[in-house]
Amino acid sequence: MTYENSTTQALEQLDTFEQLRFALNYAITTIVTNGEISDPPLATEPRGEALATLETELHKLMCAPEIASVLDTLTEAAEQGLLDERRQAQLRIVKRDRAEFLDLPADEAADFARLTNEATQVWMRAKRNNDWASFEPFLERIVESMKRLAAYKNASADPYDVWLNEYEYGSTRPMYDQLFSDIKDCVVPLVADIQKKGWQPSRACLEGHYAHDAQMAFAHDLLVLEGLNMDALVVAESEHPFSEGLVSQCGYVTTHVNENDVVSSLYSVLHEGGHASYSQGVNPELDYCSLGGGSSMGIHESQSRFFENYVGRNEAFVPHLLALLEKHFPGHFAQVDPHDFFLAVNRAEPSLIRTEADELTYPLHVLIRYEIEQLVFSGEAQVSDIPRLWSERYKSYLGVDVPDVSSGPLQDMHWSDGMFGYFPTYVLGSAYGTQFLDAMKSDGVDFDGLVARGDLAPIRAWLGEKIWQHGRSKDPAQLVLDATGSAFDSSHYTRYLEQKFSSIYNL
Amino acid sequence: MTYENSTTQALEQLDTFEQLRFALNYAITTIVTNGEISDPPLATEPRGEALATLETELHKLMCAPEIASVLDTLTEAAEQGLLDERRQAQLRIVKRDRAEFLDLPADEAADFARLTNEATQVWMRAKRNNDWASFEPFLERIVESMKRLAAYKNASADPYDVWLNEYEYGSTRPMYDQLFSDIKDCVVPLVADIQKKGWQPSRACLEGHYAHDAQMAFAHDLLVLEGLNMDALVVAESEHPFSEGLVSQCGYVTTHVNENDVVSSLYSVLHEGGHASYSQGVNPELDYCSLGGGSSMGIHESQSRFFENYVGRNEAFVPHLLALLEKHFPGHFAQVDPHDFFLAVNRAEPSLIRTEADELTYPLHVLIRYEIEQLVFSGEAQVSDIPRLWSERYKSYLGVDVPDVSSGPLQDMHWSDGMFGYFPTYVLGSAYGTQFLDAMKSDGVDFDGLVARGDLAPIRAWLGEKIWQHGRSKDPAQLVLDATGSAFDSSHYTRYLEQKFSSIYNL
């Protein structure tokens, strides 16, 4: 496509803007990632100073009047049908992102950044000391700020809905309500039935001592098995496992090694490797513009849960995991029966900690957070009610007693970081993932056969074509529709859970 | 000191400028450091894209007309005696740095960056393939560009002098000529005398296999022994050892592990730890402004060579090194006689490779480069003459035959990166270091006794007070004068070399 003069000039200006946006994001990401992987303790302050200034530069860039007129020119060009598809998508995303920055007064945004930065430190101490009282006033201020910030973004909408949409574009409370209601109807009786049965598979086959260096070498080979391009990936250690992937040619996957447990790192690596697969699969032509990265948190989570659970906790894949484990921990796994291993890593049992929960009870942990967040945002409950609400719901949905706030509402860092509305994307992602799985099978991909052969390439090819390559150029709803032929439908997920766990527990 | 209104406002604007300059430098340093330590191969391109854009932003910031008027206001205030000492130093350094950027047309600077970026890639291949011809045209373009760029900076000065001054502020050719002439007079006869003697100490006591992980643990403990604050230091691995320290609270030291040689990493770690000591010792109040970092390349090198050689290759320190080696490599060093170890790590022998040269012959390697650089910049020699000039001088000064260009003029990366004029700072730093050593002793520091006791704290305290704390606020000549009571004098260095090696070789 050739453009007329004013359009060409505006596109060049947009490219310059994108170049600087990319560079600032690359710098911020690199600095944050170093903070989690390798920075020494005293680097906290200089890192914070540098980050605050770079964020301010990013804010200035996004709000600059120069880019406004460029976007206006391009919007006119688009209306006259003068932009190709990619440029239209880019224009749409840049305008949307810019609006997010413009909505917020710079000083309120800076105050909120300072508040959450301090609250995160307070939360860390509070969690260590099992001390809700010290954290409560910070959480109150965060909720108040988030209500006010939501009003700037959209004065006519409910504040919680604003934040749901922030983390998953186009998501709504009715959609989540339906999803969680379906999940509750499916999972609560399943969990009750399992408890009634009174039988649980043994985890004895997983026990052992797994040396640190061997676990890191295993993590590397596991990512190769998963299909990652290791020439574009850093594998490292951090307190909390994460992945990061701003461009297709460079991503990070971290894990946390516990020498008494290799399975924890195994599934965490497969999970983060799923995120990294998505990042690596984005069309490289989108790398240096706002269309790089993933469509949404939910879609990203669909890819991580896909590799962690639908591949990694699939019985057909177990022999490949056992072979790799045996290679790195000789003698530990040679005698393990694949079926026993499969049962051990799928033991469904109510527990206290979300990040350690099994595949079946996991969504109930998220549901509890989703319900509490709504109560607090609507004013039906106060921040001070959270520990009580937490204990009541853990008892009611999972049947467990919460012994202290550290294993209760202080277990996750999200709220201290101002991430109300984020949790539901974890479950939405799992549900998206099953819909992708069913669509892939309908498209003729022999999923179970391929997993059994350890040949993930055709599976990755389907995901790459339908999801990964598009980066941010398709919004989640459109991506799901185009990839699967239907709008999002939670029944794929509940059917998956029901079939899998009925079979495991002979229900 | 309180300031009048316009001064106060200008200082605030200067602080804002410094904040952004710091953040851009922090980002650039972090990205470059990651590139050397951990980035995967494919990250080269996105890293380069991000760096190019951030460098352009830095150039824009430095050349912005807004900061010019701030500096004018502050210059007036300084003339009226309205600025305190630190602000005066800051003003001086920012004005000088800004002039460096302003002198160069942005497009010429960008072209030069592109040229050296490409030339570095060409050099790597050329070195691997022992292929001077492919590199020669790039080196010709680099020399031509550097002559042109020097003319922008100072049209009336000799181009090579401009670059000497670039790397060591205030340095001049007469100063270096005197230094190298003194060194030649001292070292060449010493080397000849040693060869006449026909005896060399054995290095047998260093031989062995030293496991990778143990070497990294040893490196950590060695830095603790050297006196580094490990809460402010990252210890990592890279192909070429380096250190980086933008702020006192966060620095990097890397080493390269060869399992057949522990001494190479030992001295490389002590060397980089010397740089890191300097960075950690800068007054933290200078951290976020242009006065952070070190005074010059030469002063920085004086600190690295101080810990590598004047402490680390000092016979009195050997028992502490042996104890630490024995801790990490049990059985290897228990029977080693300290005197034998001392002799082994001080064996003076002409060789081909600068970075592997001993303390005595090292300055001759640098001298050869200094002489060739001058011939090429003056036009007395062509770039195509370099291999011949190199061989002639290595034969004449060191008595060695250069078998190929890879072990000859292609061994160092500096020229491909446009760093003509940089090499001499290595030797100047060694010489500064001996002057500091003598001054410290005159000030009553019991250097040899402290080193023998492994108590480096009083030595570090002297260096901290006289050198480290000042950051860039004192230029090298002033720093040397203030610290030692005299101007730079190369006789400290030649006397040191003469005494040490006459004693070792019984000359």
Give me the secondary-structure topology.
2 copies of one chain form a homodimer.
Chain A: H1 5-37, H2 44-63, H3 65-79, H4 85-103, H5 106-129, H6 132-153, H7 159-167, H8 173-197, H9 212-226, E1 233-237, E2 243-247, E3 250-255, H10 263-281, H11 297-311, H12 318-328, H13 338-344, H14 362-378, H15 386-398, H16 424-442, H17 447-453, H18 457-466, H19 476-484, H20 491-505
Parallel strand pairs in A: 1-3
Antiparallel strand pairs in A: 2-3
Helix pairs in contact in A: 1-2, 1-3, 3-4, 5-6, 6-7, 8-20, 9-10, 9-12, 10-11, 11-16, 14-15, 16-20
What would you note in describing this structure?
The first copy, chain A, has 507 residues and is mainly alpha-helical. The first copy, chain A, has a three-stranded mixed β-sheet, sandwiched between helices. Chain A has 20 helices and three strands. Chain A has a domain at 5-166. In chain A, a hairpin with a 2-residue loop joins strand 2 and strand 3 (250-255). The first copy, chain A, starts with a helix and ends with a helix. In chain A, helix 1 (5-37) packs across helix 3, helix 9 (212-226) runs parallel beside helix 10 (263-281) and helix 10 packs across helix 11. The radius of gyration of chain A is 23 Å and the shape is globular. Helices cover 64% and strands 3% of the residues of chain A. The mean pLDDT of chain A is 94. The first copy, chain A, has helices spanning 5-37, 44-63, 65-79, 85-103, 106-129, 132-153, 159-167, 173-197, 212-226, 263-281, 297-311, 318-328, 338-344, 362-378, 386-398, 424-442, 447-453, 457-466, 476-484, 491-505, and strands at 233-237, 243-247, 250-255.
